[in-house]
Amino acid sequence: MVNALSRDAPLIPWRDAGVLRRDMAEGGMASKPPTRTPLAGGAPIAIGALGGAIIGASQGQVTAGFLIGLAAGAAIAIVIWLVDRAR
Question: How many structural domains are present in the chain?
Fold first, then answer.
């Protein structure tokens, strides 16, 4: 008898789409939940870019404001990432 999870069993494309054999053998791709929720840093990047573009538009320098806001948002996101790594 052939086990469905054996290494010799053929993969059925429409049933096993994107599932690796080791994932099937370990009980699924999401068998272990993460120990903690990571912090997100995408919002400061978006807010910085939009805010910088708006402030830049009021000064007649949309591109410069956008780039400065983007850089400030990225710096904040890097700080959030470093703090999250230290936790």
Answer: 2
Question: Tell me, what's the pLDDT at 86?
Answer: 83
Inter-residue contact 62 to 52 (CB < 8 Å): no
Task: Identify whether residues 50 and 20 lie together within a single domain.
Answer: no
Segments forming the whole domain that contains residue 17: 1-33
In the block, which residue shows the tokens 């910088």?
A: 52
Tell me the per-residue pLDDT of 17-37, one tens digit each, with 9 for 90 and over.
555 555 555 555 556 766 777
**Would you say the C-alpha torsion 8, 14, 17, 23 has a positive or negative sign?**
negative
**Dist CA 58 CA 9 (whole Å):** 65
One domain for residues 24 and 57? no
CA-CA distance, 70 to 5, in Å (whole number)?
48
